[in-house]
Protein backbone atom coordinates (compact mmCIF):
# COMPACT_ATOMS: atom_id res chain seq x y z
CA UNK A 1 0.00 0.00 0.00
CA UNK A 2 1.01 3.62 -0.57
CA UNK A 3 1.49 5.78 2.51
CA UNK A 4 -1.09 8.60 2.78
CA UNK A 5 1.68 11.19 3.15
CA UNK A 6 3.19 10.02 -0.14
CA UNK A 7 -0.16 10.62 -1.83
CA UNK A 8 -0.45 14.11 -0.34
CA UNK A 9 3.12 14.87 -1.48
CA UNK A 10 2.39 13.77 -5.06
CA UNK A 11 2.85 16.43 -7.74
CA UNK A 12 -0.34 17.61 -9.44
CA UNK A 13 -0.85 19.93 -12.42
CA UNK A 14 -4.22 21.59 -13.03
CA UNK A 15 -4.89 22.59 -16.66
CA UNK A 16 -7.99 24.67 -17.44
CA UNK A 17 -8.44 27.79 -19.52
CA UNK A 18 -10.95 29.20 -17.02
CA UNK A 19 -9.32 30.78 -13.96
CA UNK A 20 -12.44 30.13 -11.86
CA UNK A 21 -12.15 26.36 -12.44
CA UNK A 22 -8.43 26.45 -11.59
CA UNK A 23 -9.11 28.31 -8.33
CA UNK A 24 -11.90 25.89 -7.40
CA UNK A 25 -9.68 22.83 -7.92
CA UNK A 26 -6.74 24.46 -6.12
CA UNK A 27 -8.95 25.22 -3.13
CA UNK A 28 -10.40 21.71 -3.09
CA UNK A 29 -6.95 20.09 -3.24
CA UNK A 30 -5.54 22.43 -0.59
CA UNK A 31 -8.40 21.58 1.78
CA UNK A 32 -7.77 17.88 1.18
CA UNK A 33 -4.12 18.36 2.24
CA UNK A 34 -2.29 18.13 -1.10
CA UNK A 35 1.00 20.01 -0.89
CA UNK A 36 2.45 20.06 -4.42
CA UNK A 37 -0.16 21.60 -6.71
CA UNK A 38 0.69 23.65 -9.82
CA UNK A 39 -1.66 25.13 -12.38
CA UNK A 40 -1.74 26.70 -15.82
CA UNK A 41 -4.40 28.19 -18.09
CA UNK A 42 -2.14 27.77 -21.13
CA UNK A 43 -2.66 24.33 -22.65
CA UNK A 44 0.36 24.81 -24.94
CA UNK A 45 2.65 24.94 -21.89
CA UNK A 46 1.60 21.55 -20.50
CA UNK A 47 4.08 19.29 -22.32
CA UNK A 48 7.07 21.48 -21.43
CA UNK A 49 5.93 21.64 -17.80
CA UNK A 50 5.50 17.87 -17.62
CA UNK A 51 8.86 17.23 -19.30
CA UNK A 52 10.53 19.32 -16.59
CA UNK A 53 8.49 18.15 -13.59
CA UNK A 54 7.04 14.69 -14.40
CA UNK A 55 3.76 15.22 -12.58
CA UNK A 56 2.10 12.30 -10.84
CA UNK A 57 -1.31 13.57 -11.95
CA UNK A 58 -2.52 16.04 -14.58
CA UNK A 59 -6.09 17.32 -14.22
CA UNK A 60 -6.71 18.15 -17.87
CA UNK A 61 -9.65 20.10 -19.28
CA UNK A 62 -10.58 18.64 -22.67
CA UNK A 63 -12.13 21.75 -24.23
CA UNK A 64 -9.66 24.62 -24.42
CA UNK A 65 -8.88 27.20 -27.10
CA UNK A 66 -5.69 26.94 -29.13
CA UNK A 67 -4.82 23.38 -28.11
CA UNK A 68 -7.48 21.08 -26.69
CA UNK A 69 -6.97 18.26 -24.20
CA UNK A 70 -6.78 15.59 -26.88
CA UNK A 71 -3.91 17.40 -28.61
CA UNK A 72 -2.18 17.80 -25.24
CA UNK A 73 -2.43 14.05 -24.62
CA UNK A 74 -0.83 13.36 -28.02
CA UNK A 75 2.09 15.55 -26.97
CA UNK A 76 2.34 13.81 -23.59
CA UNK A 77 2.62 10.43 -25.33
CA UNK A 78 5.91 11.55 -26.84
CA UNK A 79 7.22 12.23 -23.32
CA UNK A 80 5.80 9.16 -21.56
CA UNK A 81 7.49 6.53 -23.72
CA UNK A 82 6.08 3.70 -21.60
CA UNK A 83 2.60 4.78 -22.65
CA UNK A 84 1.25 5.65 -19.18
CA UNK A 85 -0.43 9.07 -19.22
CA UNK A 86 -1.18 10.33 -15.69
CA UNK A 87 -4.20 12.24 -16.98
CA UNK A 88 -7.56 12.72 -15.28
CA UNK A 89 -9.75 14.24 -17.99
CA UNK A 90 -12.22 17.02 -17.14
CA UNK A 91 -15.13 18.24 -19.29
CA UNK A 92 -18.71 19.40 -19.14
CA UNK A 93 -19.56 17.11 -22.08
CA UNK A 94 -19.84 13.57 -20.77
CA UNK A 95 -20.19 12.37 -24.37
CA UNK A 96 -16.40 12.86 -24.63
CA UNK A 97 -15.70 10.31 -21.89
CA UNK A 98 -15.01 7.28 -24.09
CA UNK A 99 -12.94 9.34 -26.55
CA UNK A 100 -10.83 10.67 -23.65
CA UNK A 101 -10.21 7.20 -22.27
CA UNK A 102 -9.32 5.90 -25.74
CA UNK A 103 -6.87 8.81 -26.12
CA UNK A 104 -4.98 7.71 -23.00
CA UNK A 105 -6.69 9.38 -20.04
CA UNK A 106 -6.88 7.09 -17.02
CA UNK A 107 -10.11 8.46 -15.60
CA UNK A 108 -12.77 11.11 -16.14
CA UNK A 109 -14.62 13.69 -14.03
CA UNK A 110 -17.51 15.86 -15.19
CA UNK A 111 -18.23 19.55 -14.71
CA UNK A 112 -19.74 20.94 -12.57
CA UNK A 113 -17.54 19.18 -10.00
CA UNK A 114 -19.07 16.96 -7.37
CA UNK A 115 -16.42 17.54 -4.72
CA UNK A 116 -16.60 14.24 -2.83
CA UNK A 117 -16.45 12.19 -6.03
CA UNK A 118 -13.67 14.39 -7.47
CA UNK A 119 -11.54 13.98 -4.35
CA UNK A 120 -12.08 10.21 -4.39
CA UNK A 121 -11.10 9.87 -8.06
CA UNK A 122 -7.98 12.01 -7.56
CA UNK A 123 -6.94 9.98 -4.49
CA UNK A 124 -7.55 6.65 -6.23
CA UNK A 125 -5.70 7.66 -9.37
CA UNK A 126 -2.71 8.93 -7.40
CA UNK A 127 -2.61 5.71 -5.42
CA UNK A 128 -2.50 3.69 -8.64
CA UNK A 129 0.10 6.03 -10.16
CA UNK A 130 2.42 5.80 -7.15
CA UNK A 131 2.03 2.02 -7.01
CA UNK A 132 2.95 1.91 -10.69
CA UNK A 133 6.10 3.98 -10.02
CA UNK A 134 6.95 1.82 -7.01
CA UNK A 135 6.69 -1.35 -9.10
CA UNK A 136 8.79 0.28 -11.83
CA UNK A 137 11.53 1.09 -9.30
CA UNK A 138 11.35 -2.45 -7.92
CA UNK A 139 11.67 -3.85 -11.44
CA UNK A 140 14.75 -1.70 -12.10
CA UNK A 141 16.27 -2.85 -8.80
CA UNK A 142 15.69 -6.51 -9.69
CA UNK A 143 17.21 -5.94 -13.13
CA UNK A 144 20.26 -4.31 -11.56
CA UNK A 145 20.63 -7.19 -9.09
CA UNK A 146 20.48 -9.67 -11.95
CA UNK A 147 23.21 -7.90 -13.90
CA UNK A 148 25.51 -6.51 -11.21
CA UNK A 149 27.64 -7.94 -8.45
CA UNK A 150 25.99 -7.29 -5.08
CA UNK A 151 29.25 -6.60 -3.23
CA UNK A 152 31.11 -4.29 -5.61
CA UNK A 153 28.34 -3.01 -7.89
CA UNK A 154 30.41 -4.07 -10.90
CA UNK A 155 28.86 -5.97 -13.81
CA UNK A 156 28.56 -9.67 -13.00
CA UNK A 157 29.40 -12.58 -15.30
CA UNK A 158 26.09 -12.34 -17.16
CA UNK A 159 26.47 -8.64 -18.01
CA UNK A 160 30.17 -9.13 -18.75
CA UNK A 161 29.40 -11.77 -21.38
CA UNK A 162 26.94 -9.39 -23.06
CA UNK A 163 29.45 -6.53 -23.04
CA UNK A 164 32.28 -8.71 -24.38
CA UNK A 165 30.04 -10.05 -27.13
CA UNK A 166 29.28 -6.46 -28.14
CA UNK A 167 32.98 -5.58 -28.11
CA UNK A 168 33.82 -8.60 -30.30
CA UNK A 169 31.01 -7.71 -32.72
CA UNK A 170 32.27 -4.10 -32.86
CA UNK A 171 35.84 -5.25 -33.54
CA UNK A 172 34.66 -7.67 -36.23
CA UNK A 173 32.53 -5.01 -37.91
CA UNK A 174 35.37 -2.49 -37.94
CA UNK A 175 38.14 -5.01 -38.66
CA UNK A 176 39.70 -4.00 -35.35
CA UNK A 177 40.81 -5.67 -32.15
CA UNK A 178 39.64 -5.92 -28.55
CA UNK A 179 41.26 -7.52 -25.51
CA UNK A 180 40.36 -9.38 -22.33
CA UNK A 181 42.28 -9.13 -19.06
CA UNK A 182 41.76 -11.80 -16.43
CA UNK A 183 42.92 -10.60 -13.00
CA UNK A 184 43.34 -12.56 -9.78
CA UNK A 185 44.48 -11.08 -6.46
CA UNK A 186 47.64 -12.59 -5.00
CA UNK A 187 47.26 -13.73 -1.39
CA UNK A 188 43.67 -12.66 -0.90
CA UNK A 189 42.81 -15.81 1.08
CA UNK A 190 45.44 -14.99 3.70
CA UNK A 191 43.98 -11.49 4.19
CA UNK A 192 40.48 -12.95 4.44
CA UNK A 193 41.65 -15.54 6.98
CA UNK A 194 43.68 -13.12 9.11
CA UNK A 195 41.42 -10.05 9.10
CA UNK A 196 38.01 -11.63 8.50
CA UNK A 197 35.46 -11.58 5.71
CA UNK A 198 34.31 -8.01 6.42
CA UNK A 199 37.84 -6.77 5.80
CA UNK A 200 38.03 -8.94 2.70
CA UNK A 201 34.81 -7.44 1.39
CA UNK A 202 36.10 -3.90 2.02
CA UNK A 203 39.27 -4.75 0.13
CA UNK A 204 37.35 -6.13 -2.84
CA UNK A 205 35.24 -2.98 -3.05
CA UNK A 206 38.35 -0.79 -3.01
CA UNK A 207 40.03 -2.97 -5.65
CA UNK A 208 36.91 -2.61 -7.82
CA UNK A 209 37.06 1.20 -7.50
CA UNK A 210 40.73 1.26 -8.48
CA UNK A 211 40.14 -0.95 -11.50
CA UNK A 212 37.31 1.26 -12.76
CA UNK A 213 39.51 4.35 -12.30
CA UNK A 214 42.40 2.74 -14.19
CA UNK A 215 40.57 1.97 -17.44
CA UNK A 216 38.62 4.00 -19.97
CA UNK A 217 34.93 4.76 -19.57
CA UNK A 218 34.01 2.54 -22.52
CA UNK A 219 35.81 -0.49 -21.05
CA UNK A 220 34.09 -2.98 -18.75
CA UNK A 221 35.34 -4.07 -15.33
CA UNK A 222 33.47 -7.10 -13.97
CA UNK A 223 33.77 -9.33 -10.94
CA UNK A 224 33.72 -12.98 -11.94
CA UNK A 225 33.74 -14.57 -8.49
CA UNK A 226 35.73 -14.37 -5.26
CA UNK A 227 38.84 -12.31 -5.98
CA UNK A 228 38.73 -12.74 -9.76
CA UNK A 229 38.01 -9.79 -12.05
CA UNK A 230 37.80 -9.44 -15.82
CA UNK A 231 38.41 -6.28 -17.81
CA UNK A 232 37.02 -6.07 -21.34
CA UNK A 233 38.85 -3.51 -23.48
CA UNK A 234 36.45 -2.15 -26.09
CA UNK A 235 39.27 -1.40 -28.50
CA UNK A 236 42.92 -2.48 -28.28
CA UNK A 237 44.98 -0.85 -31.01
CA UNK A 238 48.26 -2.63 -30.27
CA UNK A 239 49.92 -5.06 -27.87
CA UNK A 240 52.14 -2.36 -26.36
CA UNK A 241 49.12 -0.29 -25.37
CA UNK A 242 47.48 -3.28 -23.68
CA UNK A 243 50.72 -4.12 -21.88
CA UNK A 244 51.01 -0.53 -20.65
CA UNK A 245 47.46 -0.67 -19.32
CA UNK A 246 48.13 -4.01 -17.62
CA UNK A 247 51.15 -2.48 -15.84
CA UNK A 248 49.01 0.50 -14.81
CA UNK A 249 46.33 -1.82 -13.40
CA UNK A 250 48.87 -3.90 -11.46
CA UNK A 251 50.48 -0.77 -10.01
CA UNK A 252 47.10 0.65 -8.99
CA UNK A 253 46.20 -2.58 -7.19
CA UNK A 254 49.54 -2.79 -5.40
CA UNK A 255 49.21 0.56 -3.61
CA UNK A 256 48.48 0.20 0.15
CA UNK A 257 44.87 -0.03 1.37
CA UNK A 258 43.53 1.28 4.67
CA UNK A 259 41.35 -1.47 6.13
CA UNK A 260 40.14 -1.50 9.75
CA UNK A 261 42.69 1.16 10.75
CA UNK A 262 45.63 -0.72 9.33
CA UNK A 263 47.59 -0.72 6.10
CA UNK A 264 46.99 -3.75 3.90
CA UNK A 265 49.03 -4.65 0.83
CA UNK A 266 48.05 -6.96 -2.00
CA UNK A 267 49.16 -7.58 -5.56
CA UNK A 268 47.55 -8.98 -8.68
CA UNK A 269 48.40 -11.34 -11.51
CA UNK A 270 46.95 -10.56 -14.94
CA UNK A 271 46.50 -12.62 -18.10
CA UNK A 272 45.65 -11.10 -21.47
CA UNK A 273 44.04 -12.44 -24.64
CA UNK A 274 42.92 -10.51 -27.70
CA UNK A 275 40.48 -10.77 -30.57
CA UNK A 276 41.01 -12.04 -33.22
CA UNK A 277 44.52 -13.32 -32.47
CA UNK A 278 43.55 -15.70 -29.66
CA UNK A 279 40.01 -16.53 -30.71
CA UNK A 280 36.70 -15.18 -31.92
CA UNK A 281 34.39 -16.48 -29.16
CA UNK A 282 33.98 -14.71 -25.83
CA UNK A 283 34.25 -17.90 -23.74
CA UNK A 284 37.50 -18.86 -25.51
CA UNK A 285 39.02 -15.40 -24.95
CA UNK A 286 38.22 -15.56 -21.22
CA UNK A 287 39.64 -19.07 -20.90
CA UNK A 288 42.86 -18.15 -22.70
CA UNK A 289 43.27 -14.99 -20.57
CA UNK A 290 42.71 -17.12 -17.45
CA UNK A 291 45.46 -19.49 -18.55
CA UNK A 292 47.82 -16.59 -19.17
CA UNK A 293 47.03 -15.25 -15.68
CA UNK A 294 47.98 -18.62 -14.22
CA UNK A 295 51.33 -18.37 -16.03
CA UNK A 296 51.89 -14.95 -14.43
CA UNK A 297 51.22 -16.46 -10.99
CA UNK A 298 53.62 -19.33 -11.63
CA UNK A 299 56.30 -16.86 -12.74
CA UNK A 300 56.24 -15.03 -9.40
CA UNK A 301 52.95 -13.06 -9.29
CA UNK A 302 52.45 -9.26 -9.36
CA UNK A 303 52.92 -9.32 -13.13
CA UNK A 304 51.07 -9.89 -16.40
CA UNK A 305 51.37 -12.36 -19.24
CA UNK A 306 50.02 -12.02 -22.76
CA UNK A 307 48.73 -15.35 -24.10
CA UNK A 308 50.87 -17.13 -26.67
CA UNK A 309 49.79 -16.80 -30.28
CA UNK A 310 48.21 -20.04 -31.50
CA UNK A 311 50.54 -22.29 -33.47
CA UNK A 312 50.29 -22.25 -37.23
Question: Which features characterize this protein?
Answer:
elongated, 5-stranded parallel sheet, about 300 residues, alpha/beta, single chain, 11 helices, 5-stranded mixed sheet
Number of strands: 12
Distance between the termini: 66 Å
**Which structural class do the helices and strands define?**
alpha/beta
Give the count of helical stretches. Answer: 11
Residues in helices, as a percent range: 40-55%
The main pleated sheet reads as: 5 strands, parallel
Write a concise synopsis of the structure shown.
With 312 residues, this protein is an alpha/beta fold.
Description:
It is a single chain. The protein is α/β, with parallel strands linked by helices and 312 residues long. 49% of the residues lie in helices and 20% in strands. The protein has eleven helices and twelve strands. The chain has helices at residues 4-8, 19-32, 46-53, 69-79, 97-103, 115-147, 157-173, 188-195, 197-214, 239-254, 282-298, and strands at residues 11-15, 36-40, 57-61, 87-91, 107-110, 178-186, 220-225, 228-233, 257-259, 262-264, 267-275, 304-306. Strands 2-1-3-4-5 form a five-stranded parallel sheet, with helices on both faces. Helix 11 links the parallel strand 11 (267-275) and strand 12. It is elongated and about 85 Å long. The model has no long low-confidence stretch (mean pLDDT 91).
Helix and strand topology:
Blueprint: H1 4-8, E1 11-15, H2 19-32, E2 36-40, H3 46-53, E3 57-61, H4 69-79, E4 87-91, H5 97-103, E5 107-110, H6 115-147, H7 157-173, E6 178-186, H8 188-195, H9 197-214, E7 220-225, E8 228-233, H10 239-254, E9 257-259, E10 262-264, E11 267-275, H11 282-298, E12 304-306
Parallel strand pairs: 1-2, 1-3, 3-4, 4-5, 11-12
Antiparallel strand pairs: 6-8, 6-11, 7-8, 9-10
Helix pairs in contact: 3-4, 8-9, 9-10
Amino acid sequence: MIDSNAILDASILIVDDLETNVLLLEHMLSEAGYRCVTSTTDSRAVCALHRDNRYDLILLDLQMPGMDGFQVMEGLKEIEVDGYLPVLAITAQTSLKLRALAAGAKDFIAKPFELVETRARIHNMLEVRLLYKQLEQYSHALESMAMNDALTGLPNRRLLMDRLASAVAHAHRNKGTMAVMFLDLDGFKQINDSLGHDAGDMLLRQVADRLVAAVRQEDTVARMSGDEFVIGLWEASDADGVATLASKVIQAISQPYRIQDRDVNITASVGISSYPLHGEEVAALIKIADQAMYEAKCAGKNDYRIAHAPAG
